[in-house]
């Protein structure tokens, strides 16, 4: 740990806070150390884990400020012999990051993804990782915006996709996975164990609908007025939150969730059906006049 | 006032509460004594006004329970010599209610409407009322669901459309109108003086958008899931609130607000534009592979 390093003035969102120390600290490699990687890394480190970030950019100062180490080379990262490797790339870049990663060196480790879609990384990790790598697919349903102060009560969805079945190794791997899950339990997350397929069905009906609605309304350039209703205020909140996220994330939710297209179809059909009802009522009214 | 009448056990939403007494009580006729008419009448009466409801149905008991009188005949209503006649019909029935109302007997009175669209009743009242009737068009932007406990801070939109210009009469009419507006000021409403035309522009961009979004999502049969995001919870709230209102109200917002069709067009265009952006990003991604 970089406890010997005097951290530069941390930004308020990255400030180290007192956390319940984790009873069994791990060495955790974080691949992709952007906004979300740092957000997770800060809490891992605050629990007492050794956290080593790795990205192509220079995040050494940012890492030091939150009690993490930092390297720019994947082999240097793996030289730290991490128990767990957390992939914190965007949906869009997962494939290219893995293509240039020394995946053979992930043999015997626990590999975790944290993407907002789940079937896609599950399939890819099963395809490219060595058979002895354990796989845990997760979706922490919060981020720096929504969980700056605390993760308590926020949903952490996970699916233990693969544990090495060799008898003695299996017990150790299972324990390592539980130890990693304890991080989220310690923070008070609502733990939701759910198959990747089921996650994607729910996520299309919730997260993707919400982002689509927010972005549809943003296309209309909706604004606050002197006569906002409470319902309208709620919609303005949704527009604000969804447009704060990048278009790339939204595109990822669409492109890499097999259910998203059907939801988009249903929204279009729903809006048309509603208009048809209004127009039918209008014809009905006119026919009575 | 029916203070001699022992009210039957009032429902919780209609219970008489202590209110600041109005300094200049008026006699207020309420035409249309359904849910919304009773909601307003209860507060008028609690402030010390004499309130006389009138509808085709039998609401005598409901009226007594909230300190109001009740008649079923428009002539009997006008025999009470009301200072103010508040039209509490639905948007859809305004025209037919006025067609069978002895409108000539509204001469010299203040006539108020409370509909969620404003240009439509303004035009109709200017057309059918005697010239000596004053006209106040209003939109209390709340109802029994959203303002059961208090009206404080909720928007009351109004437009003094016409005051009889005869010199002495004008002063009296203006005072009568201010006295009526004091009802809403006493309850702590946010008073928003706004032309009917401007109201309808804002309302199409806020209230109609909100109802359309809620009803579009209701067409998809959206439900709570184990992995709701906060934004999705907001949308579920909007669906719940907008579908509690009748389809007739929604249809009225569409049919009798000249800006509603354009908003519906914009929503359809917004959704198509969003889909086009996703599909363009998809083509772009594939062309790079």
Task: Tell me what the structure shows.
The structure is a homodimer of 289-residue chains. The first copy, chain A, is α/β, with parallel strands linked by helices. In chain A, 47% of the residues lie in helices and 14% in strands. Chain A has helices at residues 35-46, 60-65, 74-79, 94-99, 119-128, 167-186, 196-219, 230-244, 247-255, 260-288; strands at residues 27-31, 50-54, 69-71, 84-87, 110-113, 134-140, 155-162, 190-193. An 8-stranded mixed β-sheet of chain A has the order 3-2-1-4-5-6-7-8, sandwiched between helices. In chain A, strand 7, helix 6 and strand 8 form a beta-alpha-beta unit. In chain A, helix 7 (196-219) crosses helix 8 and helix 7 packs across helix 10. Chain A is elongated and about 80 Å long.
Question: Helices, strands, pairings?
Answer:
The structure is a homodimer of 289-residue chains.
Chain A: E1 27-31, H1 35-46, E2 50-54, H2 60-65, E3 69-71, H3 74-79, E4 84-87, H4 94-99, E5 110-113, H5 119-128, E6 134-140, E7 155-162, H6 167-186, E8 190-193, H7 196-219, H8 230-244, H9 247-255, H10 260-288
Parallel strand pairs in A: 1-2, 1-4, 2-3, 4-5, 5-6, 7-8
Antiparallel strand pairs in A: 6-7
Helix pairs in contact in A: 7-8, 7-10
Explain briefly what this protein structure is:
The structure is a homodimer of 289-residue chains. By secondary structure, chain A is of the alpha/beta class.
- Which of globular, elongated, flat, extended, rod-shaped describes the shape of chain A? elongated
Fraction of residues in β-strands of chain A = 5-15%
The most extensive interface between chains reads: A-B, 63 and 63 residues
Low-confidence stretches of chain A: 1-16
Care to count the β-strands of chain A? 8
Helix-strand category of chain A: alpha/beta
SS summary, helix count of chain A? 10
Write the element-wise H/E pattern of chain A from the N-terminal end onward: EHEHEHEHEHEEHEHHHH
Radius of gyration of chain A: 22 Å
Strand order of the largest sheet of chain A: 3-2-1-4-5-6-7-8
Largest sheet of chain A: 8 strands, mixed
User: What is the end-to-end distance of chain A?
Assistant: 80 Å
What is the helix content of chain A?
40-55%
The pLDDT mean of chain A sits at 91
Oligomer state equals: homodimer
